[in-house]
Predict the structure.
Amino acid sequence: MMRVAPEHKLRLRQVLPGRVEITWGGGEANVCASLAMFGNQVRYASALPDNTLAESLKTSLRGLGVDTSQILTRNGRLGVYYVECGANQRGSTVLYDRAYSSVSLAEAAEYDFAAILEGVHWLHISGITPAVSRQACEANLELVKQAKSAGVEISCDLNFRKKLWKWHPEIQGQELARQCMAEVLPFVDLVIGNEEDAADVLDIHPADTDVTAGHLNVAAYEDVAQQIVTKYSNVKRVAITLRESISADHNNWGAMLYEAGGTAVFSPLNSAGEYESFKIGHIVDRVGGGDSFASGLLHALNDSRYDSLQSVLDFAVAASCLKHSIKGDFNYVSVAEVEALADGNASGRVQR
């Protein structure tokens, strides 16, 4: 997608007509970009129009090392979203403009799924694409089915977006998301979500938690993960990001990774080995934080150097913590920078 945002933390009505920042974004594209910057071989599959905007997006992705050869070109338009970065007690806001986009119009039969999956050992999807349209939902499900038949590992970021689940004439919102994602999850190996997704998409609620008040009962998310793997026995791991929103500028950040069978780890840990979230103040841009977590998780799970659940999660949480300091959707950080933070270097001192 194309991301349109005012400079700094201005509001759209302050700058229009006038100057805005144009960058690229979108859940799966964000994950691809981060993984490529971590040195992984990555392929991005979508549907885009045949115009300069789409070519510019593909050029940017290729410049980061992403394979764009399997992007479907068809009629339609490039989806757009507009974001205002919040400040203090004013939260960030997102406006989606995705109707009649190429990916929303493309039927499953238009994609060459065999070519998309050639040489692929891991597929990452999200709950955003199926929320866009019936066609995108059906194409997403068919891709997942063919990937599983080919022996591909599948991760799914639930990513509930209530503003998008409106394409069904009779069912909308949570109920539509729950019905559609219930068809996808039986094929998924790794479920990723934030502190609200399990409740919104799976109707599984953590005890003693009030997300809007910035209060999380962190221990309750282990029970949430257990319920997910009980409901879907195919799920091997569940990862949940834990965000406490003190204000738009100050969030506490961490995560839990649960492995079917009962092993759960949390990150970050303090010197006593207990969970103690990163205190992120003066946030530059929190959009894409979940995607940067997902990409960090996939990178570490596919790199033998991270030989424990704890080291895998430490890398993912550090990567996503750093994303809060980066303007735009893509997480422009290196493996070395992530590992430094995961190892405890959180001073932010100049590196010479």
Q: What stands out?
A: Residues 116 and 255 are 31 Å apart (CA to CA).
